[in-house]
């Protein structure tokens, strides 16, 4: 029942066919499958490469830091922040994110004014100053 030596080379006692002929159909099937897989990979790569890139919002200049004593600078500061929020609505979809972003640009008296509110960042009350852009900007 083991392999024996035939006229054309090694044969199996079971089938009298050379080993190379017995494995040929499965090797052919494997080669066809590999060719199909390679074609699928190339097609997927081509379709991703030919797909247009999504438009990305260009970055905007950060507002100048605000220190608080001059009201006209405060209005300009708020408008600059609103432009950033409008330009990137995905990142600023929540009111609290807007307020926290603005707080990162406060310095001097303005930073001292907001400091007590920052100690309670976990407050989820919608009427809390840090959770409402409308309250904050007014």
TrEMBL record:
Protein name: DUF4939 domain-containing protein
Organism: Austropuccinia psidii MF-1
Lineage: superkingdom: Eukaryota
UniProt biased composition (Polar residues): 13-25
Region feature (Disordered): 1-25
